[in-house]
Amino acid sequence: MKDVNIGIQDISKIEGHASLEIKVRNNEVTKVQLMFTENKRFFTQAIRGRSIDVLSQSVARICGTCSIAHSLCCIEAIENAMGLVVSQQTQLLKKLTMYGLMIRDHALHIYLFSLPDVFNKDSVLDFTPEQSHFLHDSFDIKRAGNKLSTVVAGRAVHAPFPQVGGYAQVPTNKDLKAIIPDLKLAREKLFGVLDEYYDCPVNYSRSTDFVALVGKEFDFLEGEIMNTRGLCIPEKNYFEHLNKTVLPYSQAVGYKFEGDTYMVGALARINLNKKGLHKDTRRDAKKYLRVFPSQNIFHNNLAQGIEILHSIDHALEIIDTIDFKPEPKLVFEKKACEGVGVIEAPRGTLFYHLDIDAKGMVKEGNIVVPTQQNQINMELDIKNLVQNTIDKLSKEQIKYEIEKLIRAYDPCISCATHFLKVNWT
Question: pTM above 0.90?
Answer without folding.
Answer: yes
